[in-house]
UniProtKB/TrEMBL annotation:
UniProt keyword terms in alphabetical order: Hydrolase, Magnesium, Metal-binding
Species the sequence originates in: Thlaspi arvense
Stored Pfam families: Inositol_P (PF00459)
Highest taxon listed in the record's lineage: Eukaryota
Binding site for Mg(2+): E114, D171, I173, D174, D326
PROSITE patterns: IMP_1
Protein's name according to its UniProt entry: PAP-specific phosphatase, mitochondrial
Cofactor: Mg(2+)
Family the UniProt entry places it in: Belongs to the inositol monophosphatase superfamily.
GO biological process per UniProt: sulfate assimilation
C-alpha cells in the first residue's frame, strides 16, 4: 500500500507520521518524520528486516569512514585481489559486520555477498579486520574472535547457503576505486532482501554523498520498501526522512545521463543520435548532458532514484560478468521512486537465472535505468542503433 498517491513527481517531499494516507499534501510543503522508519510499520510487511538493514548499513558506513581516515597511513590497509580490483580492509569488515548483525536476528536467511575470507587469510590481515568489526558491532562487552569474523565473511560466500527462496544480497563497498581515491568520489554500501525473486526492500549508504540537508552535512542513507516508496535521511545519528522521486524529464535531449566510468559514450547506442557534453552551460541541440562519472553502479542508481540523474546506461562487456549485488538494491530504490529498470530488450532483471548461486545476472545487452518517462524512448533508440554498433 502506497503512503501517498500524488499524481505528480517532485524530487523531495517530507511527510508527517500523522497525516491521512488519502490526503494529498500541497506542493513544496514539508512534513517531518522523526522515526526509525518513515512510514507506519503496519504498511511494511518486512519492517523488522528493514530496521535491521538500516542499522547494519549505518554501522557499516561508519566503519568505512573510520578505515578511510587511516587508509593512506598504512600500506597494509590496501590490497589487490586476483582480478586486479582494489579491495580494502573495509570491504571485508563491512561484509563481516553486516553478516553478524543480520544473522543474530535472521539466522535462517542466507547472505549473497562479494567477498570470502580466503584472500584475507592468505595476506595475514585477519587481525586488522577483526579490530575494525569489534569497534562497530553491537556485541556489548563480548569481543569477536578471528574465527567469528571469518565465519561471518564466509557466510556470504558462494558455498555457504542452501535456501534460495529468500536472500539477503550485499555489496560491501560498491565503488571501491572511489573509496581508494582519498577524495570525495562516491561509494556505496548496498543491501537488499529478495523474496521469491522479488526485491522487497533495500538500503544504500553513501558516506560522502553531497549534502541534501540544511545543515550542510554530507552522507546519505536511502531506503526502499515495496509499496512504501524511496526515502533518504542524513547518515547522522538523528535526522528527518525525506521521500524521493525520480526527475520528471520527458525529453531525451534534456535528460542527465550517467554511464560506467569504464565505458565511453561513443560505445553506447545513443551516441548514434546524440553527442555528449559535460558542460551544463553549453548544451547544443544534438547533445545530451553527461554527468561526471562516479565509481560503481549503485552510486548511479542512487543518483537516478534521488532525481539528480535521469538515465543510467550500462552495456555488457563480453569479458565481464554482471553481479547481482551491483544492482539488486538499486533496482528497488529506483522502482519505488517512480523509475524503471530493465535490460536492453525491455525485460525486467531476473535474479533467478543463476539458479545455483544467485550471484550473476544476465541482462540482454545491458541495463537501462531511467525515470520511467524516458524508458520507452531509450529502448527504441537502443533497438534502432544496436545493429550498427
Amino acid at each position: 500500500m502506497h503512503i501517498l498517491d500524488t499524481g505528480a513527481r517532485f524530487s523531495a517531499v517530507r511527510f508527517s507520521p500523522v497525516f491521512s494516507p488519502s490526503t494529498t499534501p500541497p506542493r513544496r510543503r514539508h512534513f517531518i518524520v522523526r522515526a526509525n522508519l518513515p512510514f507506519p510499520k503496519h504498511q511494511a510487511k518486512y519492517h523488522k528486516e528493514l530496521e535491521a538493514a538500516i542499522d547494519a548499513v549505518d554501522r557499516a558506513c561508519r566503519l568505512c569512514v573510520d578505515v578511510k581516515k587511516s587508509l593512506f597511513s598504512s600500506k597494509e590497509k590496501i590490497l589487490e585481489k586476483n582480478d586486479q580490483t582494489p579491495v580494502t580492509i573495509a570491504d571485508f569488515g563491512v561484509q563481516a559486520l553486516v553478516s553478524l548483525e543480520l544473522s543474530k536476528l535472521f539466522p535462517s536467511i542466507p547472505l549473497v555477498a562479494e567477498e570470502d575470507s580466503l584472500f584475507l587469510r592468505e595476506n595475514n590481515l585477519v587481525g586488522s579486520v577483526v579490530s575494525e568489526v569489534n569497534a562497530k558491532a553491537s556485541i556489548g562487552d563480548n569481543q569477536l574472535s578471528d574465527a567469528d569474523v571469518l565465519e561471518a565473511i564466509d557466510r556470504g560466500g558462494k558455498d555457504a547457503y542452501t535456501s534460495i527462496d529468500v536472500l539477503q544480497v550485499l555489496d560491501p563497498i560498491d565503488g571501491t576505486r572511489g573509496f581508494l581515491k582519498g577524495d570525495d568520489a562516491l561509494y556505496v554500501v548496498g543491501l537488499a532482501l529478495v523474496v521469491d525473486n522479488e526485491i522487497v526492500l533495500g538500503v544504500m549508504g553513501c558516506p560522502n554523498w553531497p549534502g541534501d540537508s540544511s545543515d550542510g552535512s554530507t552522507g546519505t542513507l536511502m531506503l526502499s520498501h515495496i509499496g512504501c516508496g524511496t526515502w533518504t535521511k542524513s547518515l547522522q545519528a538523528s535526522g528527518d526522512w525525506t521521500r524521493r522521486f525520480v526527475d520528471a524529464c520527458g525529453l531525451v535531449n534534456k535528460a542527465r545521463f550517467c554511464i560506467q566510468e569504464s565505458q565511453s559514450w561513443e560505445s553506447l547506442p545513443l551516441s548514434a543520435s546524440f553527442n555528449a557534453t559535460t558542460d551544463s552551460n553549453d548544451i547544443h541541440s544534438d547533445e545530451i548532458l553527461l554527468l561526471p562519472t562516479c565509481c560503481g553502479s549503485l552510486c548511479k542508481y542512487l543518483m537516478v532514484a534521488s532525481g539528480r540523474a535521469s538515465v543510467f546506461l550500462l552495456r555488457i562487456r563480453t569479458q565481464r560478468t554482471i553481479k547481482s549485488w551491483d544492482h539488486a538494491v538499486g533496482i528497488i530504490c529506483v522502482n519505488e521512486a517512480g523509475g524503471k529498470v530493465t535490460d536492453w530488450e525491455g525485460d525486467e532483471i531476473n535474479l533467478e537465472e543463476d539458479q545455483s548461486e544467485r550471484r550473476i545476472i544476465f541482462p540482454a545487452g545491458g541495463v537501462v535505468v531511467s525515470n520511467g518517462s524516458l524508458h520507452h524512448q531509450i529502448l527504441e533508440m537502443i533497438s534502432s542503433a544496436s545493429p550498427t554498433l
